[in-house]
Amino acid sequence: MLGKLKNISREKNLSSLMANVSVAFMGLVSFMLLTRQLNKELFGEWVLFITLATFVDLLRFGLTRTSSVRLLSGTDKLSQKTILGTAFRINLALLGVLTLFCWGSHVILLFSGIEINNGYRLFLFYYPFLALSNLSWNNAMSLFQAEQNFKRMMVVRISNVGLFCLFLLLNQWWLQWGLIEIIWVNIAVNAISGIWCMLKNWDGLFYVKFARKKTEKELVNFGKYSMGTLISSSLLKSSDTFIIGMSPFLGSAGIAMYAIPLKLTDLLGIPLHSFAMTAYPRMSKKAIEGDLSGTKSIFYSYVGIITLLFFPVALVSFVFAEHLVLFLGGNEYKDALPLLTLIFRVFTIYIMLLPVDRFTGVLLDSINKPKLNLYKVLVMTFANIILNVLAVFVFKSLVAVAVGTVLFTLMGIFLGFHYLKKEIQIQSRQIVSESVDFIKNLKTHLG
C-alpha cells in the first residue's frame, strides 16, 4: 500500500497539479487580502495593472517557451545550454523594446493630458521594473516543464507568490500600505525568485555565450505561432478586463466586481493547466517519433477523464455560487452579490467546455501545427472582442460579457475538431472509449 502511495506521489500529473494548487492557494489568499485592503476603485486599478502585466509577459515568453519546451525535451546538456542561452537573449531583447514602448507612451500621456483609467498609467510606468524582476524565473520555467520537474517549479513560484502573500498579511494587520507600495513589493519578491534562478544556472543568463543564430531562428519560427496563440488565448480572458476598463459606465469598480467570479473560474481551471503541462511533452514526443496513434490516444484519455472530473466541481460551484462569491470578495461586494452570483454561474458552463477546447489546441501544437492553433485562437479572440464591445458599450452588462465567453469557447471547440479531423483524422466518439480504457488500466498508468 505504501509503495502504491509513493508511485502516486511521483506521478507527473499529480506533481504538476500540486505545484499549481500550492501557488494558486497563496494567490487566492493574496486576492482575498487585496479585496479587503483596497476599495473597489483601487482594487480595480490593481486588477487592470496585473492583468496587463500578465498579458505582456505572455507576449514576451510566448515567443520562446513552447518552442523551448519542445526542443529541450530529451536533449543533451550542451544542447540545453544553447537553447536556454538563446531563449534568454531573445527575451532580453524583447524587454528592451517593451521598456522603450512603455516609458515612451507614459511620457506622451503626461504631456498630452489624455484621460485614461489609472490602471493603464500604473502599467506603463511600473511594468518595465516588474518585467526585469521576473525575467530569470520565467525563462527557467521552460527547463522545468521540459524536465517535468514540477517540484522545482512549485518551489520557485512559491518563493515569490508566498512572500507576496506574507507581505499582504503583515499589511493587513500592521503596515497598511497603499497601492503603490504593494506594486513595489510585488516587483521585489519577483526579483528574489529571479536572482535565485540566475545563481542556480536555471535561467540561461550564463549560457548566453552558447546562443546560436540557427537555434534563435528555430525558436522564433515555431514561437511566432505559439506566441500568437498564447497572446490570443490571454486576450480571450483579459480583453474582458481591458474593455470594461475603457467604459465610463463600468470603470474600475466594474473591473473589481467582474474580477471576483473570474478569479473563481481561474481557480477551477488550475487542474486543466496542470494536465496540459504534462500532456504537451508526452504528445510531442509521440508525434516526433511518428506514433500518431499514441498521440491521439493520449488526447482522447486526457479530454475524457478531465471533463468527467470537472462535471461534479462545476455542479457544486453552480449550487453554492453565492457563498463562494461572498467568501472571496468579502462584505465590500455584498451589495452586488446577486449580479456576481449570476456571472459565476454562467462561468461554470464555460468551465465544462474548457478541457475539450484546451486540448485541441495542445494537440495541434504537439503535431507541429501551431499555425492552425493560432488561427483557431485568433478567430475566438476576434469574436470575444466583438462580443465584449457589444456587452460593455451597448448592453452595459457584465453578465453579457460572461455569456460571450461561453459562445467563443463553443466556436473554438468546433474549429479545433475541424482542423484535427483534417490533419490526423481525429474522432470525437473515441474520447469515451479511450477514457474507459484509461480508467480500467489506472494501476498501470500509476505504476
From TrEMBL:
Transmembrane spans: 14-34, 46-63, 90-114, 120-137, 158-176, 182-199, 219-236, 299-321, 336-356, 377-395, 401-420
Subcellular compartments: Cell membrane
Membrane topology classification: Multi-pass membrane protein
InterPro entries: Poly_Biosynth_Transport (IPR050833), Polysacc_synth (IPR002797)
Main location as per UniProt: membrane
Domain of life: Bacteria
UniProt keyword list: Cell membrane, Membrane, Transmembrane, Transmembrane helix
Database matches in PANTHER family: O-ANTIGEN TRANSPORTER-RELATED, PST FAMILY PREDICTED COLANIC ACID TRANSPORTER
Name of the protein described by the UniProt record: O-antigen/teichoic acid export membrane protein
Native source organism of the sequence: Flagellimonas algicola
